[in-house]
Amino acid sequence: MQVTTPTKGSLTDHGATISGPKLLGRLKAAGITHIIWLPDSESSELYHLMQSDPDLTLVPVCREGESFAIAAGLLLGGQRPVVLIQSTGFFESGDSIRGIALWLRLPLPILVGYRGWTPSGQPQDSAARFLEPILEAWGISHRLLRDDSDLDTIDHAIHEAQTQSTPAAVLIAGEWTAA
User: Fold this and answer.
1) CATH number at residue 109
2) What is the pLDDT of residue 3?
């Protein structure tokens, strides 16, 4: 396998974009109240949109593993959070995912930045080789979000998480836009 270095600040090399306002609109329409997230350079445009949205509470964390404990607390308090996390942060969060999200059967949607994903299946980063096999090993269903035409994957993941009381992931393979 040939590994290439991605352009700085780019999730992918395929040019597909995801509208931040449309994505946030989907989350709000589904009743999401909080976005738990560790800011990163690849989603800075989305960060500014989330920060200025009065209908969503942005909960920044210091380490990705904290996200799942915070989500559990919010769920117990009657809120409806979503975790927004990079794939490498998802890997770092393994014990929290296992011991909190899966063990407690949290109805938690997880939006995962799919680092290194390409339409050709030749990943730009080794993280892309591991994400889906790890999700499958843990029994976490997942769907791919490449561009705005795939935004319904968010609705499906939220519905699945809530009706089956389990984490459900959306793998974000496109780049964010503020439009």
Assistant:
1) 3.40.50.970
2) 27
